[in-house]
Every structure is written in C-alpha cells, then in structure tokens.
C-alpha cells in the first residue's frame, strides 16, 4: 500500500515537471502555431541559474524568479531575431531553425557552465524526506507536485479567463481582425514567447532538484516535453495535462514493473497510444472536407 | 435493374448538431441529378458520406449493387465513385499535365509503380493529351497549376475526375465563382465525356441546375425535402417556402 | 538527343572521376573519411526521399541505418564477412524495421509523425543498448572479420572507399528512378493534397509504406557496410541524435535534391573532423552554419548551386 502510494507520488512529481515544461512548449504551439525546439535550452538555462543562485547564499526562494527572468530574457532576445520571422513559416522550417538554435545554445552553455553534473544545494526547508505510510518520500517531490498544480492552474486562469487570453486566442484565429481592433499582435506574440521561455526556465529551476543539470539534459527534457505535448494532442491545456500524466506514469511505472526494459515498455506504450489516436488525446475538431 | 447509387437512411451528427437526418436517395445509371439547398443544408456532408470521407452514424450506401459502407475513399474511387471538392483541389505546385497524369496513372492501375516507369508515363501522357484537347483549354500543359486562372483550375479539377473514367461523378459546386460562359463550357465538357456516366451536381445557380438536370433533389437543414423532375420541384410548395422562395417568383 | 545523352553522361563522368581521383591519390585516413561521407550521405539521401518528396520528417532514420549495421555485424561475426551476405542481412533487417515504421506512420503526420518515428527509433536503440548477448550493449561489437567477396578481401581503405562509392552511385540511381516513377510522383501528391489523392483512388498509407521501404532499403544497404569502416559498431549508430544529425546534413546539403545529401554529410563530417582539431566548440560552428543555412539558403547548398548555375 505505502509502496504503491509512494510510486504514484513519484509519477505525479515527474508529471508535474513534465506539465510545467510541456506547457511552455504547448502555449507557443497552440497560441502561435510555433514549434520551439529551443525550449529544452531554456529549461537547462533555468537549471544552471538556479544551481548557481542556490550556491551563492542569496535568499533561496529567489532562485526561481531569477531562473524565470534569465530564460525570459533569452527568449525575448531570440524572439526579436530570428524567431519572429518564422511564425508564419511551415512547421518543418520552425523545427529546423529552433533545433539549430538549441544546438548553439547547448554548446554555449557547455562553454559557460562546464561539462560536469551540477546538483543544487537545496535549502533546509526543501531537503529531507517525509514518511508516508512508513515509506520515506523526498519532500522536494511533494513541493514539485504542489508547485506544478498551482502554476498550471494560474496559467490556465491567465489564458482562459482573462481578457488578455481572449485577445490572444482571437489573434490566433484571425490576426487581421484583432489588429483592426487596435491590438498590437506582434507585442502579443512576443509576450507569449517570453512567457513560454520564462516558464521553461522556471521549470528548469524546479527540475534541478530532481534531475540536476548537465549538458545533454536540454535534449532529454525537450524530447519528453515534446512527447507530452504531442500525446496530449498539440496544445490544448487539458491535453497537455493528460499527456504529462500519461508520460509521467508510463515512465515511472515501467521502471517499477519492468526494471530491465523500462524505456522499451514506456516508449512502446506511448507509440501504441499514438497509433490508436494519431492526433493525440484532445484532437481539435477541424473540418477537413 | 437496381440503381447505380442507393443511399438509405443516412444520418450524421457533428456533436449535438444534426447535419443529415434520414436521407434516402437513388441515382440511376446515366442520369443527371441536381442537388440543391441553402448554405449549410448538408449537401457537401452527403457527398462526404457517399464517398467515404465521413462515416455516417446510421444508414447504408450501395454502389453498383454492392454495399460500400466499409470501404475507404480510395477503394470507392477505384470502383468508379468519383468526386470533386467544393474548393478546387489541385496540386498547385505541379504542372497542369502532371495534375491530370496523376489521375490517369491511377486509373490505369500504375499509380504506385516504380519499375517500368517509362511506359506508364507514356500511356498517361497520351491520355492527358486527349483530355486536354477535348477540354479545349488553350494550354500546353506545362504551366504550373497555380499560374492558371481560377476558371481554368476548376476545369482542370474536373478533368482530373474525368481522367478516372467514373461511373458516377459527384460534382460539388463546380461552377461556383465562374462566369456564365465558363460554367456552360465546364458542363459541356462533362456531358461530352461519356453519356453513361451518372452525375450528381451541387450548384447554387438555379438556371444551371434546372437547365441541365433530369431530376432534382432539394435538401434543407439536413433533410431531403423533395426529389422529382424540375417541373415538379419548381411547383412544390415546401421547396418554394424553404429555398426557392423569392428566386422562383 | 545527343545533348540529352551528354547532359546525362556528364554528371556520371564527373562522379566517376570524383571516385577515381581520391582512389588513386588519397591516403588511408582520407579514404576512410570519404567512405564514411559516402555511406552516411547515402543514408541521408534515402531520408531525402521521405522528407523531400513526402514531407515525412522522420526522427527515426538512424534506427534503420543502425539496425542494418548491427545485423550486418552480427551476420559477419557468425558467418564471415562475405559482402553479399552482409549486405543481405543488413538490408533485410532494415527493410523489416522499415515495414514496421511504414505501417505505424500510416495515419500520422507532422509533429505526430516526428514523435512516432522518434519513439520507434528509440525502442530500437534501447534494444541495441540492453541486449548485451547479441549487440554487446554499450560496448558494441568489435573484432569483425573484414569484408570479402569470393577470393578477394575488401579490407583496405581503397577497397572500402570504392565499395562505398559504388553503393552511393547505385543508391543515387535507385533514388532518382524512384522520384521519377509514378510512386515518387504519388508521394509528392500525398504531401501536397492528401485528400485529393484519396479521391483519385490512391491509398496514402500504401504510398507511405512504399516510400518507407525504399528509404529503409537504401539506408540499410549503407548501414550494412558502415561497421566495416572501423570494424566496429556501437549503439550511437541507432540513436536519435544520429537521426537529427542526418536531418542537419540533409538541410545543409539541400532538401529534395538527392545529391545534396552527400554535400551535406561532407560539410558536416568535415566540420566535425577538422574544426574539432582546433577548438572544442565545433558544435557551435555546426549550429551557426546550420542556422545560417536555414535563414539564408532554404534549399541548402545544392539549391544555391543550382541557382548559381542557372545564373
Ligand atoms: N466536419 C464537420 N464538423 C462540424 N460541422 C460540420 C462538419 N462538416 C459540416 N459541418 C456542418 O454541417 C452543416 C452542413 O454542412 P455542408 O457543408 O454539408 O453544407 P452544404 O449544404 O454543402 O452548404 P454550402 O452550400 O454552404 O456548401 C454545416 O452547418 C456545417 O457547418
Ligand atoms: Mg457545400
């Protein structure tokens, strides 16, 4: 019983991390129809910033906003050039451009932060374990689950329940009309990309306590986030939540049940899911004919 | 003899919206049936169901005496159940000739061949030349589809369907956006092609439908209001109320 | 007629010269290096069939290449390095995997297809990495017997280079005939207007399956020879990062041109080999060049060359 609950919580904490990373990706995808493969780099940048911040002795909780800001700044720069020019281009070109950018960023980070594995010094408040049904469980993972749920909810409120979100969704459907209403869609899109990059950095800061930070992590995280978003059906909020849960649970429980072939089982499950539902969990009802 | 196409009790909903309810209809070999109805009546949806692009919630479709409900669109096309789309759906980046050849090769059963490409291409090209000559398009065939005028694209769109030598041809508003002369020319091409080909023609232009069709079916809000000869339909009170209204007066 | 003949003979002659010159002049290191360019280029060219003609961006192409490499290596270890045997084993294995992938991607497109091929490819990688008894796990397989054909041993760098060159030429001819044949045209049609293709009676699923088989067969043939360059095969040859590298090579060379694939793999491998001798930042170079090409030359080096030739 206790063991099962601990594993479920493990899966949930991983899902929370996937959700936060995936949301950054899916926000630009669903709202701007832009595929940003540099998102993994934003994540890793956030991780590095958090690790350095936590080692510096400054108030620990500021590490998260610092990571958000650092990644958001990188996002803002890249948005001006060259992302902005590619919003209207086909997905393939976006994939190529942003993958190229991510290769550059990855090497720059390897240059700046070194090639070794950096683990953050967690503050006392987040260290240690709690006992659930006599089973030890890392406190930090509970923290992740909580933060994931709260941030996810906030983002949903922002995009779904505010005027800003409404303008955004309208701009996606028909940019021209929204512009005739006097709304600057360029700034709107820039804001979304910066928000998404910041989210990437923030999730990197949060994830560092679980996955540490090292070269190559950007790609690993990117792939998982991409799988999350794709399994979720590209970009609806509910879909991304579902995708994060599917991927988080598949990866966690395949390790529990089939330790030898964990990834084979998990990948097969995800591939099988995509075979049965080629458009993911929540497919938009598009009229084709 | 059973009819060429037999639709029985077709129903289709999109979510809570009933796009088609209980449509039953038959098309005979060689006849021209006009399908009319206001925007959103469900005409295109009916085409989609008949050609296999949408699965109906209920009902059955028989073609040439056999049920086709379980066949995907491409299998239905191979049987001779051929359609065009409401928007001209061509390959804009390919040449006019290549557009038609794409259809001709598939008709000859060579669509997926790798070996013996030369003979396949030669055969298809010969057929394309015939079609182009027949159509009277003042084009050599080498020009990119995207560079053709809209009217020419619609004719090319039709020629692709004709290259398949259909037994039943479903045309979805082939004349929309064309001038009167262009529309007449397009319909002449259809008629000249093969008199045994049955035709279902969706059009909003009443003159065209009443002038060219043997029978007319009227749809409204997903239902089939009336089927009959042009005179009978023109005289029908329900049709006048629902659709023709001011137009007929 | 004579002009047509000439215009077809000229590239052929140029290609043969390009093979003959290094074979006569280059040293062993460069011959091996060129052979690697040719083999990877062949695999990238087969990817171009999918991406360039079909718009099917696969992130699992290395799985086809690498699976063939493993199958060929295992066959060679157990049955000896007979060239035909090795080619047959590798290509056959790749065709099997390609058939599987082809069936899997029948209904997917765009990002879904990208992720699906990635997942399938990574499953192949996991197998290569964890099935120690057969694949040697993380260490891979070493100590392969050299290639042979009847009485001839094909183990010198010159023989390997000529073998790779012959394979590349044959594969290029095959790929060109595929693109020109009805199936190649149908692949383009299914990319441009899948709905219309169905309405014309084409099965897009079968088109994709055939394209995948053609691409898989060619990638597999190249992969079969790959282990014999260094008498070693490791899990990196199956990993998705090699798939991504292939896409980079393809884009640098030029999507849709077929021969650009060789150009792209040459540029990439040259950067990797020569720039890395001077600086650790060679990946930065690759990234910058790649991004510049995406920004400035959307049709890659081959496209730029074609434009330049047309004036
Ligand atoms: N795939 C779909 N998803 C949701 N609704 C659909 C879909 N296809 C059709 N509809 C709806 O079904 C109704 C009938 O559409 P349909 O296109 O068949 O009408 P139509 O008679 O062809 O009209 P028009 O003359 O404008 O072409 C419309 O209200 C349309 O919005
Ligand atoms: Mg319609």
TrEMBL record, chain A:
UniProt superkingdom: Bacteria
Keyword Aminoacyl-tRNA synthetase included in the entry's annotation: no
Family per record: Belongs to the binding-protein-dependent transport system permease family. LivHM subfamily.
Pfam families reported for this sequence: BPD_transp_2
Naturally occurring in which organism (per UniProt): Teichococcus aestuarii
Its membrane topology: Multi-pass membrane protein
GO molecular function: transmembrane transporter activity
Matches recorded under PANTHER family: ABC TRANSPORTER ATP-BINDING PROTEIN, BRANCHED-CHAIN AMINO ACID TRANSPORT SYSTEM PERMEASE PROTEIN LIVH
GO cellular component terms given for this protein: plasma membrane
GO biological process: amino acid transport
Keyword Translocase attributed: no
Residues annotated as transmembrane: 12-32, 37-55, 61-83, 95-119, 139-159, 188-215, 221-249, 256-276
Xref: InterPro entries: ABC_transp_permease, BCAA_transport_permease
Keywords from the named record: Amino-acid transport, Cell membrane, Membrane, Transmembrane, Transmembrane helix, Transport
Compartments where found: Cell membrane
Name of the molecule in the record: Branched-chain amino acid ABC transporter permease
TrEMBL record, chain B:
Domain ABC transporter, residue spans: 5-246
Keywords: ATP-binding, Nucleotide-binding, Transport
Signal peptide as annotated in the record: none
Keyword set includes Nucleotide-binding: yes
Keyword Nucleotide-binding among UniProt keywords: yes
One Gene Ontology MF term: ATP binding
GO CC terms of this entry: plasma membrane
One Pfam family matching this protein: BCA_ABC_TP_C
PANTHER family, per the entry: ABC TRANSPORTER ATP-BINDING PROTEIN, CONSERVED COMPONENT OF ABC TRANSPORTER FOR NATURAL AMINO ACIDS-RELATED
Name used for this protein in its record: ABC transporter ATP-binding protein
Organism: Teichococcus aestuarii
Automatic annotation (TrEMBL), chain C:
InterPro entries, sorted: ABC_transp_permease, LivM-like
Regions that span the bilayer: 59-77, 83-104, 111-131, 209-229, 241-270, 282-306
Bilayer topology annotation: Multi-pass membrane protein
GO cellular component, one term: plasma membrane
Cell compartments where the protein resides: Cell membrane
One of the Pfam families matching this protein, by short name: BPD_transp_2
Gene Ontology MF: a single term: branched-chain amino acid transmembrane transporter activity
Keyword set, alphabetical order: Cell membrane, Membrane, Transmembrane, Transmembrane helix
Protein name per the record: Inner-membrane translocator
